[in-house]
Amino acid sequence: xxxxxxxxxxxxxxxxxxxxxxxxxxxxxxxxxxxxxxxxxxxxxxxxxxxxxxxxxxxxxxxxxxxxxxxxxxxxxxxxxxxxxxxxxxxxxxxxxxxxxxxxxxxxxxxxxxxxxxxxxxxxxxxxxxxxxxxxxxxxxxxxxxxxxxxxxxxxxxxxxxxxxxxxxxxxxxxxxxxxxxxxxxxxxxxxxxxxxxxxxxxxxxxxxxxxxxxxxxxxxxxxxxxxxxxxxxxxxxxxxxxxxxxxxxxxxxxxxxxxxxxxxxxxxxxxxxxxxxxxxxxxxxxxxxxxx
Amino acid sequence: xxxxxxxxxxxxxxxxxxxxxxxxxxxxxxxxxxxxxxxxxxxxxxxxxxxxxxxxxxxxxxxxxxxxxxxxxxxxxxxxxxxxxxxxxxxxxxxxxxxxxxxxxxxxxxxxxxxxxxxxxxxxxxxxxxxxxxxxxxxxxxxxxxxxxxxxxxxxxxxxxxxxxxxxxxxxxxxxxxxxxxxxxxxxxxxxxxxxxxxxxxxxxxxxxxxxxxxxxxxxxxxxxxxxxxxxxxxxxxxxxxxxxxxxxxxxxxxxxxxxxxxxxxxxxxxxxxxxxxxxxxxxxxxxxxxxxxxxx
Lengths: 293, 297
Description:
The complex is a heterodimer.
Chain A: H1 3-15, H2 22-49, H3 53-57, H4 71-79, H5 82-113, H6 119-128, H7 135-147, H8 154-158, H9 165-175, H10 180-188, H11 193-204, H12 206-222, H13 225-231, H14 240-251, H15 257-291
Helix pairs in contact in A: 2-15, 4-15, 5-9, 5-12, 5-14, 10-11, 12-15, 14-15
Chain B: H1 2-34, E1 37-38, E2 49-50, H2 54-59, H3 64-99, H4 106-115, H5 121-131, H6 138-145, H7 160-185, H8 189-197, H9 202-213, H10 215-229, H11 234-240, H12 251-261, H13 265-296
Antiparallel strand pairs in B: 1-2
């Protein structure tokens, strides 16, 4: 294959964006195939939630429910207290997300725009905590939270998660890009530093706030290890992921696969919907944490 | 001026620094301290009794405590290596599919891949426990279409750990694909253009340009993949409880079982400290490996 031929191929491609050649056809089929494989477990989950109990037990498995029904969704609410679990998860995720945004904006602003002693070592120390697996701190943290009288309560789940290093890192990266003149002008107008931060700086880093909101919400909606440890069997405070895990024990030996899949489908919805709404910012933030970090 | 900035900085930093200090740094130091103590998690810290390195001797001894811990350590190491070895090449291949401009669908594929990363691990574990079901699950059915015999997946000690790895790879690969795409966009088109003029074929361009220039991205991905791998908990807690025959007993699960459920806080802390040291050594080794490769090329 000569280089000139290759380049003219390239020009042709560029003229009509996508040109149907055997190569692009193959590539397109490959993309579709990969997407189907990647989406398959979630498709299976939704399909199973619509099956009758008999259909979920068939050998070999049937793929499509003959008469899709929402029965499992109505029944699952009766087996575990799904409604209150949803509310618990929402409280945990929303409170943690709001707090993480506020604490990260404040600390990120200081690291990005202030000169102070020990700035770099302090930043490095905080950043290092990002790489510490939670199991390393789990045992003493469990005892510390019980000293604070927060065991078996939602507060016990939330309070240790009001700040995190990733948020500080993300905010510092974005706030560095805010022009100093903008901040100086607001200061000359007599704004306090808090007003500068929340009325001038925060609106100009909205993409970072959107990304951190998504990241923190999804992380705390999905979080399992810490709530399971700190809640100590207080079922009233269980978030949806723990209630979901209890569904599996109802499932043993019974025809309840549909129920489990219906519960899983419901639990998956909030983070996935938020992701679809905010995915542009999330992807940008992953990119910036990977490239600049 | 500097003094005023110091004061302002302290006020801005206080909430995040105090929270991270109290809830991450202090417990980390306590874990190190507790690893040298005999202490029940059910009692206050004041009941801790100094025992020197006895906990570390115990967890590496040939008693049942030691055997269980060493099994969990080895399982976690196998799990981590398998995850990294599968995730990194997959992320590059999928990244190329997302990044390429020849056929439509790249952004759509990215959305599909990344959305799996949003799904709670508990839901992933529930769904895969059904997918893997030897008789009622669709995976063995699909294998059957290609005349591959049914596999026991989670129910055999030989295949259970690998099954958990595959579940984890499915959930995480979208995140690493996005990292790979970020790396790919950093490579200047002019390099490919020049190689093309020199007559380099696509596969040669990949080995000569793409892979070397993805070095930093892959290093970052490897470190994150390693740290994520040692945190695997939900599928083990939910489906296998460490079994069958301890084949999926991994460190996060084992440390929680010993330190919280059995309330052996000292032993659990010694295990956590060992995990932390192993992680530091591994990451330093990965960096040293990356640097030595860089020096050679």
